[in-house]
Write a structure and sequence with these properties.
Elements: H1 2-20, E1 25-30, E2 35-40, H2 46-60, E3 67-72, E4 79-84
Parallel strand pairs: 2-3
Antiparallel strand pairs: 1-2, 3-4
Length: 92
């Protein structure tokens, strides 16, 4: 039951990211329940996006399970990972 709540919260989290950085995200793709690809729009650098995201992302998190976001540039070549809540399960 808790995982279902977290899944809904993760979807809301992704929607917050998309609204916080309009015009930068093409789409989200769930590879697993905890591995999510963020496909960036053409011309958006994954390094720049990760830098701006990492400064604000913790304020948007309201779930407990760890996830990994992968930022993918439109050419599909550059891929950067960003763990979220990675240590939350260790502190329980």
């Amino acid at each position: 039951m808790e995982n279902l709540k977290d899944e809904k919260k993760i979807t809301a989290f992704l929607n917050k990211i998309k609204s916080e950085w309009p015009g930068k995200i093409e789409r989200f793709e769930f590879k697993t329940a905890t591995v999510i690809y963020i496909h960036l729009k053409e011309g958006i650098s994954s390094i720049d996006f990760l830098g701006s995201l990492s400064k604000k992302v913790e304020k948007l998190v309201d779930f407990t399970i760890p996830i990994i976001l992968y930022h993918i540039e439109s050419d599909g070549i550059n891929l950067r990972s960003h763990p979220i809540n990675w240590y939350s399960s260790l502190s329980k």
